[in-house]
Design goal:
The chain has 14 helices and no strands. The chain is mainly α and 269 residues long. The chain starts with a helix and ends with a helix.
């Protein structure tokens, strides 16, 4: 079946729009995740979101909304444990990561029967995204992107040199707090598409590949965005044509792009 014929189906259209929007916002935040060495934070938030998904399934709410709320609270708690209780970032994330997973598993055990909605969040299924979920994803992505571009200079300064940012008059504490919150929310938006297990890969892999090519912060942003969109398009196309699971296919496409980028850079030297 030709790609133009596939694009006539509404579920393919929704998947394409959701994938491109999500790839853009995750690559944008991924730059700051990599600069601030927050990869474990991204992975921990993704796994802890299971609690929010399970709450939505058990109490018959939209799991995407409950997951966004739950992970925003978890991100705030991680920040609080780091700042107020002088607890290391890895320890704070580890405590709440495992607690969120444990709560999610406990709630799931109380839910009888097969739960297809829960399975789609665990392993991802971009082709099953509904209209209301697509609009939630688009609206939140726009808000996150606007925040990042409005606060771009302070965010870059905080990510590269926190002490200089403080001396320059930047409210470092609140900026870091909001960065934690919006990163957590953006990651949760991706669990419907890639799954809890794999979503952190899309926020890390494109930026890691872009970092190999980039020579400035501006080029890092551009390369991250372009590579993220390329990975999403390749992965989504392959998963449809080959009837492979969408989440793993997109993630493995990112891995292949990263390897090719590394080889090209090595040869060019």
């Amino acid at each position: 079946m030709e790609i133009l014929e596939l694009l006539q189906y509404p579920f393919i259209q929704r998947a394409l729009v959701a994938g491109l929007v999500l790839a853009g916002v995750l690559s944008l935040l991924g730059v700051f995740v990599i600069l601030r060495r927050m990869a474990f934070f991204a992975d921990g938030i993704a796994h802890a979101s299971l609690a929010g998904v399970a709450i939505g399934v058990v109490f018959s709410f939209n799991p995407l909304i409950t997951a966004v709320i739950a992970t925003a609270i978890i991100a705030a708690l991680i920040f609080l444990l780091e700042r107020r209780f002088n607890l290391g970032s890895d320890a704070a994330i580890g405590i709440l990561f495992t607690s969120g997973m444990a709560l999610g598993v406990l709630l799931i055990s109380l839910t009888p029967g097969y739960q297809p909605e829960l399975i789609s969040f665990l392993f991802g299924n971009i082709l099953s995204i509904a209209n209301n979920e697509l609009w939630i994803l688009i609206i939140i992505s726009i808000l996150v992107t606007l925040f990042v571009f409005v606060k771009m200079k302070p965010l870059v300064l905080v990510s590269c040199d926190e002490e200089s940012a403080y001396l320059s008059g930047v409210n470092v504490v609140w900026l870091q707090f909001f960065l934690y919150i919006i990163t957590a929310v953006a990651i949760v938006l991706g669990i419907k598409l890639l799954g809890i297990i794999l979503v952190s890969a899309l926020i890390i892999t494109p930026v890691a590949a872009a970092k190999i090519l980039a020579r400035s912060f501006r080029s890092l942003l551009v390369y991250s965005l372009l590579l993220a969109e390329l990975i999403m398009l390749i992965g989504l196309t392959l998963s449809i044509y080959l009837d492979w699971p969408t989440g793993p296919t997109i993630v493995l496409s990112g891995t292949v792009v990263f390897v090719i980028t590394s080889i090209v850079k090595k040869i060019s030297k």
